[in-house]
Design goal:
single chain, Aminopeptidase, 5-stranded mixed β-sheet, about 25% strand
């Protein structure tokens, strides 16, 4: 189930659903609530998108997650990551991966706790994270 209402740790309710083409009109409002530092930590620059992009092989997908700055620390990042993983599992992907700035210790800790393998990236200050999905139990109850 890709669309659902979820309650965050502080009791706030959010709706999780796949992106739709018409959502592009919502980006300016969303990005207005994201600090330049949060954009840089996620996208290494003040531009970006949120996605799970399948590799050309169809075996794995690259994730990118950005949470509005005022919602950080409420569990939304964890929730979105679990949904990305569940979506990748449903699509039949074998792994998800991403790049994370080494200074983004919160994201790296979350990845490690979810079972991602963390390694040095090809560039200084960048880590690569990879999660094999073939033996991972489903993270979202249907």
């Amino acid at each position: 189930m890709l669309e659902r209402q979820i309650k965050l740790r502080d009791g706030e309710e959010v709706r999780i659903r796949p992106l739709k083409p018409e959502d592009a009109a919502l980006y300016p409002d969303f990005l207005a609530d994201v600090t330049p530092d949060d954009l840089r930590l996620r996208f290494f620059a003040p531009l970006g998108v949120v996605r799970l992009h399948d590799d050309s092989s169809g075996e794995a997908g690259e994730f990118a997650i950005l949470v509005r700055s005022h919602l950080k620390g409420h569990g939304l990042g964890w929730l979105l990551m679990k949904h990305v993983i569940a979506f990748a599992q449903e699509k039949g992907l074998h792994a998800v991966h991403g790049q994370v700035l080494a200074e983004n210790t919160t994201m790296l800790k979350m990845c490690e706790e979810l079972g991602f393998h963390v390694a040095d990236g090809g560039e200084p200050g960048v880590k690569t994270v990879r999660l094999s999905l073939h033996e991972l139990p489903s993270l979202i109850a249907h």
